[in-house]
Design goal:
- The protein has one domain: P-loop containing nucleotide triphosphate hydrolases (Rossmann fold), CATH 3.40.50.
- The protein has 217 residues and is of the alpha/beta class.
- It starts with a strand and ends with a strand.
- The strands form 2 sheets. A 6-stranded mixed beta sheet has the order 6-7-8-3-9-10, with helices on both faces. Strands 2-1-4-5 form a 4-stranded antiparallel beta sheet, with helices on one face.
- Helices cover 34% and strands 25% of the residues.
- The longest helix has 16 residues.
- It binds adenosine-5'-triphosphate (ATP).
- Adenosine-5'-triphosphate binds next to helix 1.
- InterPro entries: AAA+_ATPase, ABC_transporter-like_ATP-bd, ABC_transporter-like_CS, ABC_transpr_LolD-like, MacB-like_ATP-bd, P-loop_NTPase.
- It comes from Streptomyces coryli.
- It holds the Pfam family ABC_tran.
């Protein structure tokens, strides 16, 4: 699913956030990327998600060589093949749960009624069938994150990348969100979770540890 070969990312100013990292993630894996603050986890997620291009090295996602794709092709690949979940949810304020999810399907070319139907179905699947019309400020943190996950997976992407998905949640809501991610993995989605929470990482079948921009095991 993912192959990084000698990937280096240097930011302007000279920080080497990724230092010749090589990593393979198989289709259907559930992987945690852990490491201390500043070790390069978010940079890794940006590179894995094609949100950022490396300074050197090769990134392959599915069978695509990312370096060979134009920005427009990369955006299309990202929209269709990769779902993102962030610590701070990133939902549109003042917009209902169902519209937040349906708007994530704009790229599909489905008609508005079909997008809405699909959004409702996914929200039911994540246990929010009774919260369809709620706007973000009317939802709990855990519910907001479940809406964000519903939006990320509504288009059925084979790859889901989550950056500290439980970081802003209390432990009960965090557990619910983790269980949802485990369910998606069980359904066949490749899931990569960035976390500095050791307890969460310990529950994942594979952990990739980072330190100073390198993978340590
Ligand atoms: N846009 C940027 N410009 C310059 N330096 C950056 C930029 N983004 C990150 N860095 C630097 O790159 C290094 C890795 O940052 P990154 O955010 O990937 O770490 P992280 O492991 O996700 O940290 P945290 O757990 O604190 O979020 C840090 O030293 C950081 O200061």
């Amino acid at each position: 699913m993912i192959a990084l070969t000698d990937v280096t990312k240097t930011y302007p100013g000279g920080v080497t956030a990724l230092d010749a990292v090589s990593l393979e993630i198989e289709r259907g894996e559930l992987v945690g990327i852990t490491g201390p603050s500043g070790s390069g986890k978010s940079t890794m997620l940006h590179v894995l998600g094609t949100l950022d291009r490396p300074s050197a090295g090769r990134v392959r996602i599915e069978d695509y060589d990312i370096g060979a794709l134009s920005d427009a092709k990369l955006s299309a690949l990202r929209a269709r093949r990769i779902g993102f979940v962030f610590q701070q949810f990133h939902l549109a304020a003042g917009t209902s749960a169902v519209d937040n999810v349906a708007d994530g399907l704009l790229y599909t070319g489905l008609r508005p009624a079909e997008r809405r139907q699909r959004a409702e179905n996914v929200l039911r699947r994540v246990g929010l069938g009774t919260r369809l019309a709620h706007r973000p400020h009317e939802l709990s943190g855990g519910e907001k994150q479940r809406v964000a996950i519903a939006r990320a997976v509504a288009g059925d992407p084979p790859l889901l990348l989550a950056d500290e998905p439980t970081g802003a949640l209390d432990s009960a809501s965090g557990t619910e969100v983790l269980e949802l991610l485990l369910e998606l993995h069980a359904g066949g989605t490749t899931v990569v979770i960035i976390t500095h929470e050791r307890e969460l990482a310990a529950m994942l079948p594979r952990q990739v540890r980072m330190r100073d921009g390198r993978v340590t095991d």
